[in-house]
Specification:
The protein is an alpha+beta fold and about 425 residues long. The protein is built from 11 helices and 12 strands. The N terminus is likely disordered.
Length: about 425
Amino acid sequence: MCDQRRASGAEPPRLWKTAVGRPGGANRGTRRGWLLDEGVWFALAGGVLLCAAVAWFAFRGSRRLGAPSHRTTYETLHMASRAAPALRNGLTREGARHAAPHLRRLLGAGVVLADRSGTVAVEDVDQVHFDLLEPSVLSTLATGRPQVLTSRQLACGDTMCSLQAGVVVPLRVDGEVVGALATVSPVGPSALSRLATEVGGFVSTQLELAQLERERSRADQAELRFLRAQIAPHFVYNALTAIESFIRTDPERARELLVVFADFTRYSFRSHGQFVTMADELRLVDSYLDLERARFGDRMSVSVRVAPGVLGVVLPSLVIQPLVENAVRHGLEPSERPGTLSIAITDEGSEAGVRIEDDGVGADPVRLVGVLSGSDPSEAVGLHNVDERLRAVFGEDYGLRIRSALGLGTTVTLRIPKRHPGVVLS
């Protein structure tokens, strides 16, 4: 009976059974049942693994994104960081055009940016509503007061129009109105006004940073012009005197020195950028020393050693030449005996080292402190200027280091980072 019940299929299939086959055809049905059970097993196992994987990635994703407030904060900061670089050159048409899409996402509404001369960017505002905003933009530019427009003032004749409010806020730099930001949105005027005020403050801050950067650049250029002016009076006279001395005795040498002098003055006074390569700066030093050798003759010997790996290092223009000139003018020239000037440019890993040493008359260390601080500007103006510029560009740790004593000569050292943010050839 039992065998008959099993043969007739009365027994339900057992999912977890292990079937052991017997030889012969009588066992074929049993083997087919085992294969079916095995397939069900793998299907269930795959389903469990799939569910586990989905749950794991969902869990990891939620941990990565954080709470909704964290996600909102991240998205806001991300959009602000995308808008900021475009505004760092001021409220120009190009900068405003690149910033407007990010400002629109910050506001969740269409944006118009204008400066004193007119509109500089429009993002997601149609012509009809732009025309409705324009009088308020002009009013804000003229008075510096924010303007709030209601849905009635924004009525465009389209019954499906969802815009409920418009806001115009001034953009200020140092308290002066330089532009305006306008926006229209389905949001009510109160909420939109608060949001537009905050975004307008952000834009104003970026424009103030741009203004500070322009002023710093102008100050740097003014310092360069001042330093070039210090080169002119005494050096030009001395160089021309030296050239004149060769005109009758050695005309060919006089011609060579005139070419060197022309190259030197052309490089020194041309309107090049704030930064140059070490190779260009040393080329200027070489021209200067050619002219000074002609003047000093055997009274001055020069040693120059340069590591090839630092020739491409970028540094502020007119840094090394004024230091060399200071060594000649205030160290060697007053001395009654022949002197030696040594220049060494070394490769020190992430930095280039510069060492300028003379065995001239030296200087009072107390006075040098006054020269570097700017309280004793009558002499060695180049030292203070170079020291200030190095610290401004590279940081306080990169100023001049001077060791000197009366009668024992002077050694000036400085370090130039091989790479530094913002230090690039223009």
